[in-house]
Write a structure and sequence with these properties.
InterPro entries: CS_dom (IPR007052), CS_DYX1C1 (IPR037894), Dynein_assembly_factor_4 (IPR052004), HSP20-like_chaperone (IPR008978), TPR-like_helical_dom_sf (IPR011990), TPR_rpt (IPR019734). The protein is of the alpha+beta class. It has nine helices and eight strands.
Length: 405
Amino acid sequence: MPLIVKDYTWEETDSMVWITVPLKGVKANKVDITSCEQYLKVSYPPYLFECLLAAVVDCTKGSAQVGNGAVTFKLYKKEPVLWRTLRHPDADDKEIMKQKREEAQEELKKRLEEQQTKQAETKREHEKLAINEMMKLEEQERSRISNIKESERQKATEDLEKWKEEQQILAQKEKEKMLEAQREQVEAEKERDREERRRLRKARAGNIFEKEGKDGRAPPRENGKIVVKHTPRVFPTPVRESQTEQEEEWLRKQAEAKRSIELSMDADLKEEEKNPQWLQDKGNSFFTSGDYQAAINAYTHAIRMTPKLPSLYSNRAACHLKLRNFFKCIEDCSKAMDLLFPAVPQNASSRCKALVRRGTAFCQLELYVEGLRDYEAALQIDPNNKALAADAERMRHIIQATAEV
């Protein structure tokens, strides 16, 4: 049987009630407090304080504080009136107290459920706000990354266009230099021809004056052979009938051939180093071992000897791709494609490799449209290549995602 606490104290005003229940030396963490509209309970075994209030109080405003060896209730009356007594007249009726106790427990249970529901709703709202904030941050990050990619793509495109312009300027200068050298050669030949004609005229004039007779007239010409010298030209047709562009192309090829011959005749080179096929095999061996720079040197040496072999350019492009020299890879693949013309079944595999390597270099530069164009061209050559088709499809998704952003 619990010991009923009766030495409690209380005070009231028209609107509030203060009740102090002594804990009798019991620790605060062992106190169980129940507070409802008309029922109070403080249980701290073996002691028990239980009170049926004289009137109803507002549970949403009241409070119970434990400290200084007592529990202090601060309650707000629903109706501003003096009670005169704390306990209800029916407080001594056990049945009524049992009913009020059960009602208090149900009310307390309901209040806890409402509180838990409210806390759960508040937690969901906080989680929703956190998710929305996270989505905003992710969207900002995606936008930032997209802007960086777009900036880098534009820069790469500008660099590529700048490189193309520089190559065109260099080609134009080389062309002008060759034309100037050809004009100087023609002028020199013409000058030598004019000098020779002047010398011959002087020689003929001197002979005539020496052979004049006494009557002052020139003697009859003697029989002989006249030799006519023409200005030498590289091409058999006269300048006025020549085709300048074709002649310049022919001269360029001849100059490349002369350079190859001069290189192959270098006394410092070993016999196998003069063989382009040996150099290509050497480059392939370097590539297999992972020494890409040595492979580039071998392929470049072979190209100087044989500049018309497309496999040399394609293999060197693969090395540049490994070393992330993407612009050089694109240049070598383009040269290989030029040399692989016309397109025949015998060079289909080589054309497919060159297109895939050039497309990969474009993708590394984030020029996905140009890369997809090369991949699709390679798929037309090898339509059964599943890996190539998957890469092309992935590239289309990237292009579509970039366009949507």
